[in-house]
Write a structure and sequence with these properties.
By secondary structure, the protein is an alpha/beta fold. It has 6 helices and 8 strands, in the order ββαβαααββαβαββ. A 6-stranded parallel sheet has the order 5-4-3-6-1-7. Strands 2-8 form a two-stranded antiparallel ribbon.
């Protein structure tokens, strides 16, 4: 059975985006990038919201960029080898291999996917992560804190979230 991991890069005050929707302040340096790649290496499936998918889509063709550093080539291989499920009502099609669209987040379908998976999965994006957390599907949280205070925006954990431990 695979585990579902909610993974995020957030500011010290808990935001994944600032008040303008920007998150470029969270770009990792080489050491953090290597750490993230090692965390992502065993992942078999990424669960994404539309916006995060569109951001991560860069990795579908990153290997074509000239003079790509080894770190980027490594992550490109990791990302391309995983399955991707994009939850979106507006996205018409996907532009990456091993990817499918689901119109709605179905907690029971994700629960079944976890039970049938031999590899771990990650859920990314604050809104989708909140849905998975509220459904009790998340087994682990991976938070990479950027040493910066953003002051507002989109939180990595939803307000009012209550988690009951068994």
């Amino acid at each position: 059975m695979g585990q579902l991991i909610y993974s995020a890069i957030a500011s010290l005050d808990g935001y994944v985006e600032d008040q303008k929707g920007n998150f470029d302040w969270g770009a990792p340096d080489d050491e953090v990038f290597t750490f993230v790649s090692d965390l992502e290496r065993p992942i078999g499936t990424y669960l994404y919201g539309r916006r995060l998918y569109e951001t991560m889509l860069y990795w579908e063709t990153a290997h074509l960029a000239p003079d790509q550093p080894d770190l980027a080539r490594d992550f490109t291989d990791i990302w391309q080898s995983a399955h991707k499920i994009v939850y979106s009502r507006s996205l018409e099609s996907v532009s990456s291999a091993r990817t499918r669209i689901e119109r709605d987040f179905d907690a029971e379908a994700v629960r079944h996917l976890k039970l049938s998976s031999e590899q771990d999965m990650t859920v990314g994006g604050a809104d989708l992560g909140a849905q998975a957390l509220r459904a009790g599907l998340v087994d682990e949280l991976h938070l990479l804190a950027v040493p910066l205070v953003v002051g507002g925006g989109k939180r990595w954990l939803p307000d009012g979230l209550r988690i009951t431990l068994d």
